[in-house]
Amino acid sequence: MKGMDKLRYQQDFLNIRPIFTAGEQEYLTGLSDRLPLSVLTGSVRNIEEIGIDFVYSSAKLEGNTYNQYDTQALLKLGQTAGGKLYSDAVMLINLRESYRHLLSGLDSPEPFDWLDFLKTTHSLISENLLEKSSGGVVRRDSVTISGTDYTPLSNPQSLDTELKWLLQEAPKIENPFDRAVYLHNNLAYLQYFKDCNKRTARNCMTLSLMRSGFFPCVFSPDSYPAYAEAVVAYYETGDYGLFKKYFISAYENTVNKYGPQPDMDISRNFSL
């Protein structure tokens, strides 16, 4: 059927196109000026605490049932939460390991080996969630995605070709916000791995921003409906519009949450 063709994989989605307007790019850059990357990288405590937020957010976007307190107890004390799936704990621990690997990529020289980073990240994220033979390697089976009729490619050679193209094109994108969203949306769209594709895509988006000198975008853990809607809209139309709206809102929230705040005026009258 002609209408169904639109939900098959479309090669031209991976072509470089403008994503954010000049005004939106200026706005995002202005936001980033309020929250320099050094707020994260210059503090061991912030690396850990913001890292836990990043892990928690990414897990919640995948339906993880741990709350923030449970996540803190697991990642800081090694305590699993009663009544929760073991796989939820594994997901969080894997995301922490992938976050640590992400940080190690900040100082790697150019040209950066995105293929190695991508495959290593997926191996870390999928550890004990997929069979070991599926970690960091192209899938060989067809997949379906809940919530959409979009059907990704199923041929491993085609997936390899498209991933090579994607990773070849991304560095050509000059604007760092465009480049980060391009990586996220198209890695999620390609569905190169058997599972854990969006988690891997979010890590790539994060590292792309950080290697460009920008504070990463930490998505709200409560924003799953909006995130899923924006991602599915891209799968089905190739239109970045809904996702970039989601991203801008998420970056505003990130800056408001982590940006340095001026101290309130405090004065006291001491009687001698």
UniProtKB/TrEMBL annotation:
<dbReference type="Pfam" id="PF02661">
    <property type="entry name" value="Fic"/>
</dbReference>
<feature type="domain" description="Fido">
    <location>
        <begin position="113"/>
        <end position="249"/>
    </location>
</feature>
<keyword id="KW-0067">ATP-binding</keyword>
<dbReference type="InterPro" id="IPR036597">
    <property type="entry name" value="Fido-like_dom_sf"/>
</dbReference>
<dbReference type="InterPro" id="IPR040198">
    <property type="entry name" value="Fido_containing"/>
</dbReference>
<feature type="binding site">
    <location>
        <begin position="195"/>
        <end position="202"/>
    </location>
    <ligand>
        <name>ATP</name>
    </ligand>
</feature>
<keyword id="KW-0547">Nucleotide-binding</keyword>
<protein>
    <submittedName>
        <fullName>Tou1</fullName>
    </submittedName>
</protein>
<dbReference type="InterPro" id="IPR003812">
    <property type="entry name" value="Fido"/>
</dbReference>
<dbReference type="GO" id="GO:0005524">
    <property type="term" value="F:ATP binding"/>
</dbReference>
<feature type="site" description="Important for autoinhibition of adenylyltransferase activity">
    <location>
        <position position="62"/>
    </location>
</feature>
